[in-house]
């Protein structure tokens, strides 16, 4: 049985904040408590308030501010001699590094966070850090290496009845099944994640699960209408909570759904919107995926073949440099697909 979802990253004086609190509200409350703690000379409280500030800035797509905030939180925690708070700051920094596409740095920070979490006796930050390592590997396409870790973390979350972490693990495993063609399994896992998130009032997790369901409904069933309806429902949550990154990925997925339906002009508009959003928040993985969708849409709308080939070649180099194997394979498939289309036109 799962209880109501909670946000363990909101600590100290901020534990009253909900997992569904608007990020702008979290940022305002965290900044106020951080200033009060600094003025009172309480580094431990400053570290924990600063963590909320860092996470709010990261999720709002404010990379520079988030980077400064997690480092300040770490310094305050070290001054206070609070090992668990140091681990949480490193977890935030590692998560930010992954968002920025700095995967080696993300792994180093998350490994340190897991180690400090264990040393400090904080099972939650240890679990979140291991989950971050698993997600880093999954995003890079290293499914064999991180698949077992995902399953282990899912079992631990189920045993503790921790809804939010269970939802995260289910969605990660579902995504791997979806990317390897296991659509029925992926659908069942996304559906379970959506149900648990809804019961636990985890609106963020629910929005990501709906996005996953929309993807499977589109690619497996060709049901464009239902896929778009699911994305619209998820978008309402993203906007209400100011989830900038989740909203950009929602728009990118809407582009995917429209592209699969042959509605290339509409898809182009969504990919352009998502691309601008990802660039604003300096998120290279999302930017590359939006560029890929845009290149495919423009090719279908008659763009010069040489321009398309040049764009895809540049994308391939970018993804190779970032170490994103699955996305790199997607570019290869696009090159084959659009090359075959061009030959057919001849």
UniProtKB/TrEMBL annotation:
Q: Which UniProt keywords apply?
A: Repeat, TPR repeat
Keyword Iron-sulfur on entry: no
Q: Which domain of life is it from?
A: Bacteria
Q: Per its UniProt record, what InterPro entries does this chain match?
A: TPR-like_helical_dom_sf, TPR_2, TPR_rpt
UniProt keyword Lyase, yes or no: no
Pfam families attached to this UniProt entry: TPR_12, TPR_2
Query: Which Gene3D superfamilies does the record match to this protein?
Result: Tetratricopeptide repeat domain (1.25.40.10)
Against SMART domains, the record matches this protein to: TPR (SM00028)
The protein, known as = Uncharacterized protein
């Amino acid at each position: 049985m799962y209880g109501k979802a909670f946000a363990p990253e909101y600590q100290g004086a901020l534990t009253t904040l909900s997992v569904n609190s608007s990020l702008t509200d979290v940022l305002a409350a965290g900044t106020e408590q951080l200033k009060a703690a600094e003025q009172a000379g309480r580094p431990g409280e400053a570290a924990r308030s600063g963590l909320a500030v860092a996470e709010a800035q990261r999720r709002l797509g404010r990379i520079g501010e988030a980077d400064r905030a997690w480092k300040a939180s770490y310094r305050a925690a070290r001054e206070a001699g609070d090992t668990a708070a140091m681990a949480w700051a490193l977890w935030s920094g590692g998560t930010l590094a992954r968002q920025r596409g700095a995967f080696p740095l993300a792994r180093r920070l998350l490994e340190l966070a897991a180690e400090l979490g264990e040393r400090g006796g904080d099972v939650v930050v240890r679990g979140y850090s291991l989950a971050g390592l698993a997600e880093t590997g999954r995003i890079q396409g290293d499914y064999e290496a991180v698949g077992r870790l995902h399953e282990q973390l899912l079992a631990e979350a189920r045993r503790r009845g921790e809804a939010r972490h269970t939802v995260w693990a289910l969605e990660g495993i579902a995504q791997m099944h979806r990317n390897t063609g296991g659509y029925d399994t992926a659908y069942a896992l996304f559906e379970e994640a959506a149900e648990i998130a809804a019961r636990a009032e985890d609106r963020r997790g629910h929005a990501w699960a709906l996005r996953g369901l929309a993807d499977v409904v589109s690619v497996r069933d060709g049901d464009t209408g239902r896929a778009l309806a699911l994305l619209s429902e998820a978008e309402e949550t993203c906007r209400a909570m100011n989830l900038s990154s989740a909203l950009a990925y929602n728009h990118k997925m809407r582009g995917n759904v429209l592209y699969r339906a042959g509605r290339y002009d509409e898809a182009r508009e969504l990919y352009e919107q998502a691309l601008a959003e990802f660039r604003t928040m300096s998120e290279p993985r999302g930017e590359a995926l939006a560029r890929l969708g845009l290149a495919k849409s423009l090719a279908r709308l008659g763009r010069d073949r040489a321009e398309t080939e040049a764009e895809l070649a540049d994308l391939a180099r970018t993804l190779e440099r970032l170490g994103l194997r699955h996305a790199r394979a997607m570019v290869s498939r696009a090159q084959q697909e659009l090359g075959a289309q061009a030959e057919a036109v001849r």
